[in-house]
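Morning run. Coffee first, then this:
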Amino acid sequence: MISRRFWSGLLLAALSLTALGACTRDPNVRKQKYLESGNRYFDQEKYREAAIQYLNAIQVDPRFVDAHYQLAQAYLRLGVWSGAASELLRTVDIQPEHWKAQIDIGNLMLASRQFQQAQEKADLVLSKDPGNIDAHILKANSLAALENLPASLKEMQKAIELAPDRPRSYLNLAILQAGARDPVAAEASFKKGVQLDPKSLHAALALGNFYQQQSRFDEAEKEFRRAISVEPAKPVARVALARLFVGRQQRAQAEQVLREAKAALPNDPEAYRLLGDFFFTLGEIDKAAAEFGALTKEHPDDVKSRKNYIQLLILLNKLEEAAKLNDQLLKESPKDVEGLIHKGQMLNRQNKPREAVEVFSRALKSEPENAVAQYHLGLSYSILGNLAQAEAAWREAARLRPNMPAAQQALAGVALRKGDNELLMQTAETLIAAEPSSPGGYIFRAAATLGRGGNHAAIEADLKRAIDVAPQNAVGYSRLAAWRVLQKKWADAEKLYEQSLEKDPNFGEAIQGLIIVYAQQKRIPAAIERVHTQMARVPTSSGLPFLLAQLQIQQKDFQAAAASLEKALSLNPNYMEAIAYLGQVHATLGALDRAAASYEKLIQQFPGDIRGYILVGSIEEKRGNPARAQEMYNKVLQIQPENALAANNLAFLMIEGGGNPDLALTYAQTARKGLPESPNVADTLAWVYYKRGLFGLAVDLLEEAVKKMPENPTYHYHLGLAYQKSNNKNRAKTHLEKALQLRPDYPKAAEIRKALTELGG
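And here it is:
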């Protein structure tokens, strides 16, 4: 028999389980548990995990203010600014007197240059809470941004009076004093902040940065080293010290600091990646790739290092190795946006832009605000020749990330092509603000000033500034040289191009510019000799023998040009321009089979590029193989349906060969739409009209063609026949006789004489 004690114990257990179940179903308990879990992750600096828990809490209670606010804080740490702003606005929507959220919104306004709105936000808080220190600081910073420094400093003093022992207030005051050009007061305030909290990493870094800005480098180094001792487990102070050494051109010391960081913090990804990032920043891609390749083996679970390694392999054009690693990444996570971006980049490099567009579109479907994906999507459209969509993608990338140099540089390229000096100036100013130590912004601003017809002194100043900020960069010297070319200061231009080549012997722009200087002075033999000299300095450059071939073609030395192009292709078998030029040289020499072989190679290696098909088509026309030529032109139109050249050639071959006249007319009209000023296109459309019996329309177009190219016998021949069919015998005879006069051995001479006989001539 079961005892009463057993039954009572069982009953108590059941009641306890019931109570527990009730607690877990209580939404207030559940949301609080999610919040507490998120806070624990937040304290451990695991902000992504924290954000997930805060989102869980909000799912339980959409009006849970604390969860919205903490989610905003997590987003701020992650750099998800739009998400942070959205959550802060939701916080104050639920609880308008949440002053911390109001101040955070004000600080975001300040960061986005909404200075007046930021001050108004500070005033709102102070009207309800006059003793709010953070509101006084927000107002002080807003006033400084509005260039009211006296009021700013006065407001900052109020914050210090309210809490005289608060270290961060002194640091903020110091920054404002430095902005007011009072370095003595600023130093005193920085030191006060350090004195109040000698263990503060932030204070030590702030004082070190101040010393660095004042060019007091030894004191800055001492302070950064003290910051490392304050928190040796955090890499940020080591980064500051390395940057100091880089700024002082002490590269070896900077590298040593980062190697020490890697050794001291072997399990901190932010620390052990620093050396690879350092090599990448210096443009030493090979070293960066080697470092990240080693890291992927040492830390196989570190996805970020693996992704960095893939990107570097792409930059080195090691696409097979990159694809292998990236395919594995996408196998593990098919929607990984960075993996998709890598894949799209590789497709672009393989000249498969249509496939790349599809991949980037998938990436943007997952992350619509990914500026990198938008930028590379723009590159795909650019390769396809769709410059309008390319520009739209680059504008979107710049909107999403205004300080993204690649997007701004792409837009600058668009502006240069379009002659849009306002856009060029805008991108230049953005680049200068984002990267004041990079030459690009100053160079683009000089170009915009030139395009506007601006003063020469400003152009000169910007180009010299480009050299001053980056004296080891070849670009500044080359662009100043180009400016000297415009001024026809040949000796100065030559000297600057040579300086550019000293900085970067493989800089194509500089050697091309130098050759232009030689050419302008009619020194082609000297130019050829100079290219030979550069080839000896940079024997691995495929661009130099290609440049040599262009000069040899100019000298009509086609055999030598062919040898130079073969040399270029031995160094870079995928050199598209060299393949195309080699085919043209062979065609000029009458070696049509070899020309066709070059063009077929172009098609094989770059199936998405239309030039190979057009060139093969032209060769097949010369060989008397119209069917094969038509096949090639059809391939072009499959890739670019509006390609005017292919449409024109295809229309002519079809109408000559007895093809579908309606389709031939469609192609001819497409060509006319794309090349409305071309006399050849006018002749083709006219010939289609002639074959269809529309002689009046044919005459109008042929008169236009003859007017533009009066020495072309074909146009006169066609016009003579069109006039004959229009019963205008005198004009018909005039143009037919002119065709024979221009070229007595014209292939259609027999037909012309027959027509003249019919006309009584």
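The CA atoms of residues 40 and 46 lie 9 Å apart. Good start to the day.
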